Amino acid sequence: MISYVKIYGPPLLAALKALEKVAIDMPEVCIMDTTIQAAVGAPEIPGASFGAGDISFDTPEGVMAFFGVDNISEERCSNIISKSGESLGEYDFFFEWFTKPTMAQVEDLIEKIDTLLEPLGVKYTLTTK
Q: Which end of the chain, N or C, is more open, meaning fewer C-beta atoms within 10 Å of its C-beta?
């Protein structure tokens, strides 16, 4: 299952970074967002592609550099970014669940998103399917 997020209003990049921070501490999901998708689909973007430039999503160091942290386990680095090929479509971000989430897990995700996005003043929708 995937929980898709559509962000309304600026600051979009700050909102995407906040959602990435949510995912770091949620080992039950992997993610994709518009910045990662652009980097994966456009290897000519220096510093943000699989295996090329300054940041490589294929190494723990590259993943930690992208997320701006230095304390993610090697296992988490290898599975935080979705490799399913699922498209974002009209959404800006998704959390792809490794197993079907419980209602409590989805509610916990919403609570975490609310907490991080409220100070930014952005609105969002979350669709899990």
A: C
Q: Which residues contact 47 (CB under 8 A, 6 or more apart)?
A: 53, 54, 55
pLDDT at 57: 74
Specify the pLDDT at position 73.
81
pTM, 2 dp: 0.83
* Cα radius of gyration rounded to whole Å, the chain: 14
Collect all residues with Cβ–Cβ distance below 8 Å to 104 and sequence separation of at least 6: none
pLDDT at residue 37 in the model: 81
Give the C-alpha separation, 117 to 13, whole Å: 11
Stretches where the chain sits below pLDDT 50 are 42-53
Annotate the chain with three-state secondary structure.
CEEEEEEECCCHHHHHHHHHHHHHCCCCEEEEEHHHHHHHHCCCCCCCECCECCCCCCCHHHHHHHHCCCCCCHHHHHHCECCCCCCCCCCCEEEEECCCCCHHHHHHHHHHHHHHHHHHCCEEEEEEC
